[in-house]
Structures are given as C-alpha cells and as structure tokens.
Amino acid sequence: MLGVNNAPATTPPPQKPDVADDSHATMTVITSREQYLAAVDQIAAGHGPIAIDAERASGFRYSQRAYLIQIFRRGAGIFLFDPPAVGSFTELNAAIRHEEWVLHAASQDLACLREVGLDPTLIFDTELGARLADLPRVGLGAVVEELLGIHLAKEHSAADWSARPLPQPWLVYAALDVELLVDVRDSMATLLGSQRKTGIAAQEFAAVLARAVKPVREDAWRKMTGLHLLRSARNLAVARELWTARDDYAREIDTAPGRLVPDTSLVAAAKAMPESKRALSLLREFSGRASRTELDRWWDAVDAGRMSTELPALRGPGEAVPPPRVWADRNPVADRRLKGARAALVDISELLKIPIENLLLPEALRKLAWTAANDADLASVRLLLAASGARPWQIDATAQTIHHAFVDAVQIPAPGSVDAS
C-alpha cells in the first residue's frame, strides 16, 4: 500500500485495503542535502495538497524539535526526512509554501516545522475538522477508520523518535500517517460541506495558523505535581530552586526533565528540608539514578533555596478571572451570567452539532461573564468576544444568545433573595 519516494507522476493512487499493514514495506530516510534537493524537485512536480506530519521525542528530549518529517503528495509519493541531518528546509518551503498543507492536529506540529523553515500559508487540519464535523473520535486512526474504512495501527506513537537508526516498523508507521491524509482531507471536506461548515472550518484553520506561541510562564515551577503539599514560603523556595536546577540541566543535555528526577522527588526534598547533602541522599523518595549522579547539583539547589532572601508567595499570581466556584459569593450576577449563558450554549452546540468547546472556548465565556458590565448591550458583547479571539462565525452563532442570558441574569433575582415587588 505504501508509495515510494521516487514514484513517477503517472503512478495511480494505491488501492486501499481494509487494514493498513504494510509490514513488509521498506522505507528509507533522506539524510543528505543531495537527497533532500532531489526530493524537493519531485514534490514540486506532484499535484494537489501536501500531507505533512512531524515526529518529536516528547517525554524523552527537552526540546520539541522534529526528529522525522513525513510528506506525501499525489504524483510524487512519500518522503521521510531526517531534520537534524538535512538542516534547513527553506528550499522545500519555497516550492510548496502556497499550496494547501494537510496536517492532523496542526497546532502540535507547526512550531517544530517552523523551526526548520517550513511555514505554510494555508492548512487543512483533519483533527480540527473532525471536531467540527462532530465525529465521535478525532484521533488519526479513528478518523481514518470512520471516513475511509481502514484500520490504521498506531503502536509507535509514543516512541523515542530521536533514536538512530529508526527501526523499519517505525518508519512504516510514520509513512502511513501521511499516505492516507489527503484522502481523509477530501472525505472530510465533503462531509463538512454537507453540514454547511466549510466556511466555519476555513476560519478555524486560519486561526490555528495565526495563533501566536504562548510565552513561557515566569513561575512555571508552580506547575510541579504535588506542590500543594508544601505549606511554607521557604519550602516553596527550595522547590523553585530544585525545579530550576533540573530544568537547566535537562536543557543542557536535551533530556525531558521528568526523566531525570520526577516532580514527586523534588517536592519530597523540598518538604523534608534536608540540612546536609547526606541527609538529601538518604531520602527514600530521592533515589533515582540522576538523583545520585548529580547529587551535588541538587544539594546546591536545596542550599540556595534554604538561604534565599527572595521567598515566593504562597500562592501564584492570580488569574484575572477567579475560579467559578467562588463566583456565587464574590460576584453573584456574574455567576448567574455564566450559568445562564453556558446552558444556552449547550443548546446551540447540540443544534449545530459542534462540540461546545469549539463553539466557544470556556475561558472566553468565563472572562466575558466576569468582566461584562451589567448594562452591556449586544454590540459590547460582540466586541468583547472578538477581543477574546472568537472567530466571526462564533460571534454570529453565540453573541445574541449570550446577551439574552446576561440580561436575564441582571433582571432575575438571585436564588434566596426576596422580590421587592
């Protein structure tokens, strides 16, 4: 079933069996500039959309760089590239940048593709399309089976793609990820068209493409699992220094931080507040290999936290919008606004057959319900939705309903109150 990376332009599309197996296929990886430039010419000579995917080594490496990039184009075939060996992909980008690129869950791959010079101007996201089409499952294997009737094995999705050489079964798996993607795109485009969602999908795909990368939080250490067990600012200071030491070392050796020392070990050390390097080494929870081989590094961090004059606050910087569980006491009208609007959006979601989280991001509704003035008119609601990043179709579908819910929240007495009339 797999195409080959030097297929002539006249090669007919492969026949699709009920099961995508191809266990006997042999795939090669492009590792030289000469091979890469030849592949660029072949891909440019193909026709139609560009199916593209990237494999990272999340959970194994600190970086989120691509360790394998797969491309399929009709009339050209399948190409597997080794990004660290190839280097820049600017020539390929110049050849295909203005074509439609087909990705599954594009937001996961765009950053690492852009890192090597691959930056599309038009995308079709089959995972997002599956959500908008209200398919029951949106993973690639499930979508392929739903739309094409082909079972796609996904047994290597969590592999360490930074390993070299990559085993043949992994390469076959990676090639299958893109070989069927254009067929999925065509079937999904037809499905979205039948549901009158083509314009909606186009706006959503454009939003993914334009979305800015979130900046790294200054207090990212506060995301450590189990941090709530620490009750004093001094304990938190030790946890902060341990997290920073681990992060610096993980970046230096390009290893996922959790593979060095898990969060639970760092928190246990911060809670115990050992008074010496030996005491740290004797902690039962602090016994992993990196915990021992880098003991000096961790003790220096503990000591820095113990001596620090810059103690962190017990709670991190508060969000602009507090958690909804406190709204009833702190802002009863906002609480009624949120509950009323959320219930109304559920009805719209069911009517349009679009998941409610795709109809409008929950955080956008929370921010709107908390900050809107009691006398906000429809125009104000539309402006606030636009400011939150809502797309035009989302505003058109939800603004009127949200405004009605907000008006009702102001006019209807709170539960338990006495109607003065």
Describe, in plain words, how this protein is organized in 3D:
The protein is α/β, with parallel strands linked by helices and 421 residues long. It folds into 3 domains: 19-210, Nucleotidyltransferase, domain 5 (2-Layer Sandwich), CATH 3.30.420.10; 223-307, HRDC domain (DNA polymerase, domain 1, Orthogonal Bundle); 324-411, Orthogonal Bundle (DNA polymerase, domain 1). It is 51% helix and 7% strand. It has 21 helices and 7 strands. It has helices at residues 33-45, 83-86, 90-96, 106-115, 126-132, 140-148, 168-179, 181-194, 198-210, 233-253, 257-260, 263-272, 277-281, 289-293, 295-307, 327-330, 332-352, 356-359, 362-371, 378-387, 392-411; strands at residues 19-20, 47-55, 68-74, 77-81, 101-103, 123-125, 151-152. The N and C termini lie far apart (75 Å).
Sum up the structure in keywords.
421 residues, alpha/beta, Nucleotidyltransferase, domain 5, DNA polymerase, domain 1, five-stranded mixed β-sheet, two-stranded parallel sheet, 51% helix
Which structural class best describes the helix and strand composition? alpha/beta
Number of strands: 7
Would you identify the CATH H-level superfamily of the largest domain? Answer: Ribonuclease H-like superfamily/Ribonuclease H
Could you tell me the CATH topology label of the largest domain: Nucleotidyltransferase, domain 5
Count up the domains.
Answer: 3
